[in-house]
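Weekly structure sync, notes
Attendees: PL (lead), two postdocs, one rotation student
Agenda item 3: pending single-chain targets
PL asked that the sequence for the first pending target be pasted directly into the notes so everyone works from the same version. It is reproduced below exactly as submitted, 293 residues in total.
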Amino acid sequence: MKIPAWFGAETTPPGPARGGGQTEGFVEKNLGAVTGFMKEVLESHEYSHRKGMLQAIEARARTGGIIILVVSAAFMEKILSLLVLALVAAAIMRLSQVDGPSLLKRVLPPALFTGILVIPAFFSFITPGSEIVGFTVAGYRIAMTVEGVEVGLRLLVRVSVMVSFVALLFLTTKEADLFRGLKGLSVPGFFITALFMTFRYILILLKTVEDSTLSRKSRTISRTALKGSQGWFAGRVAFLLQRSINISEEVTMAMASRGFKGKIKTLEEKNLSGRDYLWLGFTSFLFFIALGV
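Predicted structure, written out during the meeting:
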């Protein structure tokens, strides 16, 4: 039997042509954002399984050392000292087998946000001092000062260094090890419990958003108008809020019925080794240097 020509011919779905220049729709962009976030989370799990310097350090020592480094950056006043600490962060990144782009994309957003906030500090109306360049507006002198640039750059470098250390901790530490390390450092139990719940259920809610968006996309033959997509997305936000409230109530009741008393149980702590004490000694040395500079 001869197959009709229309049956074997390639057909294109109705809607805009699939040619060049077609932009993603509102639904596709939101789906890509959710998928990208989940990909970053899974990427973090990949680094925590590598055999690097930080991964080999016990969870308590690793977390405590990173906290010491963050506090050291907060105490340092000279930009040169902060840049040296940034080189330490780069060396730790290299020894821990963390890729530079993965760390950079976690540091850039806070750094850019901080850079926008500190722009007014560059000028004389916030930080008076020696002028670099200036202009007069309606009889009022506005100038960029040496002291203002120094203050702004110091804050920007400090934030970047602190975020780098925190990002290295999260990239190289499994969730269970992070909670175990915080518990070993005598962090209050309610804080660990709240952090655990946040880590555990944010992915569940993101999976709900992804499933809803995929189901919407699979039932759509042609692209809808932007207003309709935004209205649907606003409805999904309300649904997600209600879903999160219901999940929190159900989880709380289930945990209470099983005897949960507000404390997360973790594996027994391991004894610190010489490598762990060396790491803590190195970070403590940098902290004492920070007190002097």
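Discussion points:
- The radius of gyration is 26 Å.
- The mean pLDDT is 76.
Action: rotation student to compare against the earlier draft before next sync.
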